[in-house]
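cache lookup: miss for this entity combination. No prior model stored, computing from scratch. Input as submitted by user K.M.:
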Amino acid sequence: MAEFSKEMIVEAMIFALDEPVSARKLAAASEIAVEEVEQAVASLNDTYQQGKRAFRILKIAGGYQFRTISELAPYIQGLGKHVWAGRLSRAALETLAIIAYRQPTSRPEIEKVRGVNVSGVLKTLLEKKMITITGRAQVLGRPLLYGTTPQFLRHFGLESLDHLPRESELQVILAESLVESAAGSEDEGNGQGSGDSDKQQVLI
Amino acid sequence: MTDYQVSLDVFEGPMDLLVYLIRKNEIDIYDIPIALITDRYLSYIEQTEIMDLEKAGDFLLMAATLLRIKSRMMLPGEPIEGEEYEDPRTELVEKIIEYLQFKEIAEHMLALEKSSLSQAERGFSELDLQSEDQDPQVEATVNELILAFGQLMLKGPPPEPVHQVEREQISATERIREIRRMLKKKGRLLFSDLVAGRPGRRFLVVTLVALLEMARRGEIIVEQDDLFSEVWIARRRGRRAEAARSKTAGGNSRSSGAEK
């Protein structure tokens, strides 16, 4: 153990495991403390950057994982038949968004927000392991409850669910996009109802 | 009135259409002119043929909702004591905002997905790169095929597909008689005792039907001590019960006014 630096050990372990591995697990498998694991990763990433390596160690789904830098994406995709494989459809994304923020949630609740039938989408998301069944609701009909999976985090490159944009932040985003679409049509006359033109965040 | 050329299939659902109409008519979402929007919505629906029956239902539900809100706006209801007046549009507006919020989030997630996919994991196999429409590949070689075939051969030829129509083992009427006999002996029985030792769904169903009929006639009382606990079937006493017992087809006791 004395011959190898902590960085080397951590590097080997993260390399060996295909999937994200937590600092705790790494610490448990070696004699390295959790904080030292984090330091080692930071130091490794510095080395990679300076050495102009094509990869970094990212923190995804609560663990560390090797990922290539995004700039080199075209070359990776050149290897396969399809670019952007595994991408989700709009409908899937919207449904997934609802589940991610409202979990655990049931199909009726999801459909209430989206206004459309989601059973097909749910099936797809289950197959792709983006969501899983976490139980049954205690209401009439006892519908199944859904929640997101670690695979979901991995697919979107998220460290944890907390790293999704906060709903409060979204109010701002919403307002901005509304302003943009209103700006285009402002020449055609004011919107109905309120005559107050300062109500920017309200006009669609 | 604008001529709507686009078919309703363009819209995923009523929310989609509603948002489109709001945008197109430059409507202030916090002060929706409900009459106007309902009018536009309805004319849109009337002009287009909705192919999907299930979708049609959703669109109609929204139409009904809009009409209800419109009528509420026109007729101020009596204010309930202590409660503030609630704008009948509020619920709908909140729904629309929520809907738009999640559309926004989905955009975000699209960007996240793009970014994440551009950072390849290790072991990015050929399988990942194939079209997502294909069925998951099952790895099988010729060897496995031969093995599977061999196993099938060992099993022997498949049996002739013959459908047997089973004769009914026991009729509900007979079962009623049976239950009556059992109750006469014991007075009070557990439901589970009634079906003990006689397997088969058919038997269970016949028993249930018999019990329901007997309960309806007033022959028996059905009791339960607790929610979800065992069910007791008891022989009911009294003239009415006696009458019911003797009245049934094939009743095994002669009609008598006396109590037993």
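stored under new cache key. Confidence is low (pLDDT under 50) at residues 1-5, 129-137, 249-260 of chain B.
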